[in-house]
């Protein structure tokens, strides 16, 4: 698997990272999570990304792969109350969450702590950023980042506080390619892409019940890519290769509940890069079809 340097952090990260939302929010049993994470690590992945609000994702990661802590970089996010009786983004909340994440993940340090999609107003106030900076100074995390999109991400990239940005980019979510991705490169900010395969919305023949993916499904219908109609590995391969072909993208976070999926994804990438003609066609189709309100989806 290919590795890239994550901006100013200097971390050499695998181009595929594991996203921890599904294992928590879908209640995946610990024995399945153990198979899932170990198969991912065995396939060469070295990034695990989770968050305080993904149910018991942090606990499951700590329980199942703490013995392999030296094999991967551990990223988490903070900001949503998630069981602590304090307002979202309260500095006291962030302090408690970082300490709680360390305990849940069974580690003495994190490689990256990210503010989890807070508003630009919260970022500009500065106290939330100050908590992360204090955690970094105390050795609780090596680096700090922001996870979000659009104008808040623009501020995060230019304020000088963050080492990384986690943001949405995919075949159906391309606005950041022209806005925040060039800024990240200019400031040497590491870019972690969330939702790089657009929640695999091509799997749904009809409008899905899950409101979280409705916007992507509607966009895909308008974009009408031939490879998406083919579905399966053809669509997944095109989506992954497109996102990872973008200059300035360092790692793409993909979630799954199927242990065999990781070796499959790695094999798709090892099969070779996307032809430039296909990449250009995807960009051209977006530029001709995208509506003004097709902004980054948080």
Give a brief rundown of this model.
The chain is α/β, with parallel strands linked by helices and 298 residues long.
- Tally of discrete structural domains: 1
- SSE-based structural type: alpha/beta
Q: What's the β-strand tally? A: 10
CATH architecture identity: Alpha-Beta Barrel
User: Regions with pLDDT < 50 over 5+ consecutive residues?
Assistant: none
CATH superfamily name?
Answer: NADP-dependent oxidoreductase domain
Number of helices: 14
Head-to-tail CA distance between termini? 28 Å
Helix content: 40-55%
Following the backbone from N to C, one meets helices and strands in this order, namely EEEHHEHEHEHHEHEHHEHHHEHH
Tell me the strand percentage band: 15-25%
Radius of gyration: 18 Å
> What oligomerization state is this entry in?
single chain
Average pLDDT taken over every residue: 95
Name of the level-1 CATH class: Alpha Beta
Biggest sheet: strands, sense, closure?
8 strands, parallel, barrel
Main sheet: strand order: 3-4-5-6-7-8-9-10
At CATH level 3, the topology is TIM Barrel
* Apparent shape: globular
Please specify the SSE layout and strand pairing.
Blueprint: E1 3-5, E2 12-14, E3 16-19, H1 21-25, H2 30-42, E4 47-49, H3 57-65, E5 73-78, H4 91-104, E6 110-116, H5 120-125, H6 127-137, E7 141-147, H7 150-158, E8 164-168, H8 175-178, H9 180-186, E9 190-194, H10 211-223, H11 226-230, H12 232-244, E10 251-254, H13 261-270, H14 276-289
Parallel strand pairs: 3-4, 3-10, 4-5, 5-6, 6-7, 7-8, 8-9, 9-10
Antiparallel strand pairs: 1-2
Helix pairs in contact: 2-3, 4-6
